[in-house]
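sry for the spam today, last one i promise. C-alpha cells for design, 290 residues
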C-alpha cells in the first residue's frame, strides 16, 4: 500500500505495508434482468439536478439544521495530521489487555532491504516480552491507533478504533432483576463447552458454504450457456439518434412556417407581416441551437 517506517525509540525501521486480509465474497453486479445490461449510477447535484464532474466534488459536513459545511482539499491539507508514512510506537502492553472489539484492519509489514536487522530485532523483542506495541498511524487521511505484533515470523499492524467509536451496550434487561441460574444448569453448560473444546483453533476445517454454493450456481449457468452478452451502445446508434432529432426539428420548423405562409397577401403590410412571421420561429429555435 505504501512505503514508510516504524519509529521505535531512536530506531527507524523502513518498511512496506501490505493488506493482510482480502474479501473472498463473490462480487455480484446490479443488472437489467431482461438483457443483462449493467445498472449505472451517476453523481447528480440534488439542488441543480445536473450531473457533477468528479473535479467539482468536495466533502461536506451536515449540521443538525440541514446547513452544509463545505470542506475543500485546502481545508483538509491544513489539518495537523501525523505523517502518513510513520508508525509511531508509543508503549507496550500485554495482548490480552486489549479487547478484540477495538480491532479494525490488519496489515503485514515487510522490511526494506537495508532495515532487515532492526526489523528482526523488534520482532524478536516483541516475542520475548510477550507484549504488543501500541502505535499511532495515519492511513487514508485518518489517524488511528494501532498495535504491532508478530504473526508467522513477520510484524503485523492492526489498526484500532478510538474509544468513542466503540458503542456501549445499553440494554434494558441489564437493569432488571436477572433470572437465577441453578448450579445444575451451569454444570450442564460447562459440560457442553468442554465437549466442544479444542486445544488449538484450526480455521482450515471451516468453509464458506454459501460462497461455494453460489459459485456452483454460477458455474452451472456458464456450463449450460445460460449467459447474456449485453448489447453495447455503438457510435452508429448515437448518429441515428442525432439524425432522428434533426429530422424532427426540421419537421417542426416547417410546421411553424405554414400558418405564416397562408396569411401572406399582396399588399406591402402583408409583406411586412411575412417578414415578422419568418423571424419569430427563428427566435424560438435559437435556444435549441445554443
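last one done:
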Amino acid at each position: 500500500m505504501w512505503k514508510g517506517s516504524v519509529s521505535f525509540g531512536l530506531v527507524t525501521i523502513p518498511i512496506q505495508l501490505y493488506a493482510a486480509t482480502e474479501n473472498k465474497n463473490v462480487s455480484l453486479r446490479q443488472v437489467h434482468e431482461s438483457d443483462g445490461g449493467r445498472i449505472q449510477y451517476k453523481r447528480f447535484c440534488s439542488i441543480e439536478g445536473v450531473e457533477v464532474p468528479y473535479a467539482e466534488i468536495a466533502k461536506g459536513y451536515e449540521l443538525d439544521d440541514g446547513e452544509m459545511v463545505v470542506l475543500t482539499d485546502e481545508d483538509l491539507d491544513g489539518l495537523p495530521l501525523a505523517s502518513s508514512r510513520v508508525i509511531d510506537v508509543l508503549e507496550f502492553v500485554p495482548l490480552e489487555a486489549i479487547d478484540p472489539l477495538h480491532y479494525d484492519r490488519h496489515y503485514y509489514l515487510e522490511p526494506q532491504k537495508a532495515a532487515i536487522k532492526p526489523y528482526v530485532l523488534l520482532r524478536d523483542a516483541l516475542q520475548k516480552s510477550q507484549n504488543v506495541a501500541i502505535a499511532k498511524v495515519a492511513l487514508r487521511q485518518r489517524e488511528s491507533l494501532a498495535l504491532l505484533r508478530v504473526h508467522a515470523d513477520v510484524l503485523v499492524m492492526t489498526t484500532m478504533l478510538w474509544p468513542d467509536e466503540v458503542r456501549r451496550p445499553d440494554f434494558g434487561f441489564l437493569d432488571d432483576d436477572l433470572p437465577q441460574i441453578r448450579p445444575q444448569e451451569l454444570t450442564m453448560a460447562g459440560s457442553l463447552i468442554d465437549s466442544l473444546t479444542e486445544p488449538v483453533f484450526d480455521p482450515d476445517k471451516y468453509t464458506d458454504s454459501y460462497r461455494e454454493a453460489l459459485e456452483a450456481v454460477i458455474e452451472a449457468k456458464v456450463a449450460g450457456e445460460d449467459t447474456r452478452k449485453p448489447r453495447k451502445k455503438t457510435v452508429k446508434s448515437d448518429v441515428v439518434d442525432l439524425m432522428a432529432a434533426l429530422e424532427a426539428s426540421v419537421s417542426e420548423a416547417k410546421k411553424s412556417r405554414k400558418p405564416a405562409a397562408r396569411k401572406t397577401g399582396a399588399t406591402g403590410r402583408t409583406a411586412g407581416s411575412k417578414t415578422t412571421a419568418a423571424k419569430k420561429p427563428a427566435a424560438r429555435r435559437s435556444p435549441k441551437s445554443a
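The beta strands are 2-8, 11-19, 59-62, 68-71, 86-94, 103-111, 131-139, 142-151, 154-160. ok im logging off now
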